[in-house]
Structure to design on (427 residues):
């Protein structure tokens, strides 16, 4: 992003950007940057808070007249991520004990996912390699990988494996938005990777891939690096 | 509409735990600084002494970038007369066109479209905020409101989306190919101001 701003200014466009990592902006020195101490993934700070988001935009626009570049200004408010406190999501009871626990769990979250889909007017982050009806199929492949299969064995390449993990996570986090009151930054992430059967399954699969020296790109990005 | 550019120097592999960046690459404006070697946090760490965001910020701070001299385009009219575009590096794509992409290409998002989805390959940032409200990273509604209020002149016809966290440490494709091509898309639309939003 910082590199792009150099290119755009050189082409004759006035630019101003948000930085979520101050040190990175200091290295690349984009012409005009508003550094925000907000959670990674939330550059405008607060979801569903138009007033706050607009205040961030106005702070950006305030930098446009500046020609003493590079200019880096800190936004005065700090918002911390809350990943150490996972979301509290009441989970549906086990429905079919004959199924793998992760598959049964995913089936049980379908109503919550559908409610969220309705609440967002149909917008979902699911859909990289599967739609909602394909989520269980993705989980079943992760189960195979946990059991020792390689990602190639289940028909995936690096990006397909990463995309599958992200689709599963999107399904859970979108369901979680309907189940939890505490959905600050990274709270649903921690809930998914540490408190759900499927999230823990993905972490075990990743750990097995690492031990077997399976595809390094997929191993690196199957789960967040900070979710051990 | 998608613009794909060649990226001969783009690695298709993750950076290993210790990654020595090249000291010099081709191109007349691109030079990579020789800086300390970036060290990744052990991937199997189970206990963290600081927050996930702090860990990642610490991790990426100090990674060298191209040594570019900042220049400033001076606006010749007030903001209330400017056409404004968003360029996000969240890796957003239109629904139905979702895929992970790892290169320096970009995609065009019609400004009126709200059915945009996250295609960024990295799992290392919060996604729930963007899931709940797309404006958390892509403030298209906020810009429209500012246009209606007369704070900005107008919103651009199209916004742009790149994938951030580029694996090519030289950024040569962005500097020489996709970056100028993206700027031209906006210039052709009469855009004056671009706001960048990362994730």
């Amino acid at each position: 992003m910082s590199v792009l701003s150099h290119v755009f200014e050189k082409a004759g466009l006035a630019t101003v950007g948000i930085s979520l990592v101050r040190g990175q902006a200091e290295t690349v020195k984009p012409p005009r940057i508003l550094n925000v101490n907000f959670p990674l993934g939330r550059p405008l700070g607060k979801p569903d808070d138009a007033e706050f988001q607009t205040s961030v935009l106005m702070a950006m626009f305030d930098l446009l007249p500046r020609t003493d570049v590079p200019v880096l200004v800190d936004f005065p408010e700090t918002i911390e991520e809350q990943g150490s406190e996972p979301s509290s999501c009441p989970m549906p009871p086990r429905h079919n004990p004959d199924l793998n626990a992760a598959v049964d769990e995913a089936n049980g979250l379908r109503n919550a996912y559908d409610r969220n889909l309705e609440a967002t007017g149909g917008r979902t982050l699911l859909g990289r390699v599967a739609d909602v009806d394909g989520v269980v199929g993705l989980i079943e492949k992760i189960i195979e990988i946990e059991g020792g299969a390689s990602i190639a064995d289940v028909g995936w390449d690096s990006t397909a494996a990463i995309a599958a993990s992200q689709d599963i996570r999107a399904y859970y986090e979108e369901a979680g938005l309907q189940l939890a009151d505490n959905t600050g930054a990274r709270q649903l992430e921690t809930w998914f990777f540490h408190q759900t059967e499927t999230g823990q399954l993905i972490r075990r699969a990743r750990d097995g891939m690492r031990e077997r020296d399976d595809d390094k790109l997929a191993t690196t990005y199957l789960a967040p690096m900070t979710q051990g | 509409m998608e613009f794909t550019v060649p990226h001969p120097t783009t690695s298709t592999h993750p950076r290993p735990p210790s990654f020595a960046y090249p000291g010099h690459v081709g191109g007349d404006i691109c030079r990579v600084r020789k800086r300390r070697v970036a060290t990744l946090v052990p991937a199997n760490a189970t206990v963290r002494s600081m927050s996930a965001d702090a860990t990642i910020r610490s991790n990426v701070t100090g990674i060298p970038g191209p040594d570019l001299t900042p220049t400033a385009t001076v606006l010749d009219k007030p903001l209330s007369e400017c056409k404004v575009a968003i360029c996000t590096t969240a890796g957003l794509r239109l629904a139905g066109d979702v895929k992970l992409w790892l290169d320096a290409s970009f995609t065009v998002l019609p400004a009126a479209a709200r059915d945009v989805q996250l295609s960024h390959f990295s799992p290392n940032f919060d996604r729930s905020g963007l899931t709940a409200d797309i404006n958390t990273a892509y403030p298209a509604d906020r810009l429209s409101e500012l246009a209606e209020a007369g704070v900005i002149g107008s919103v651009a016809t199209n916004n742009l989306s790149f994938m951030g966290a580029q694996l090519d440490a030289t950024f040569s494709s962005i500097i020489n190919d996709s970056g100028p091509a993206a700027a031209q898309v906006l210039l052709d639309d009469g855009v004056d101001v671009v706001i960048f939003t990362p994730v």
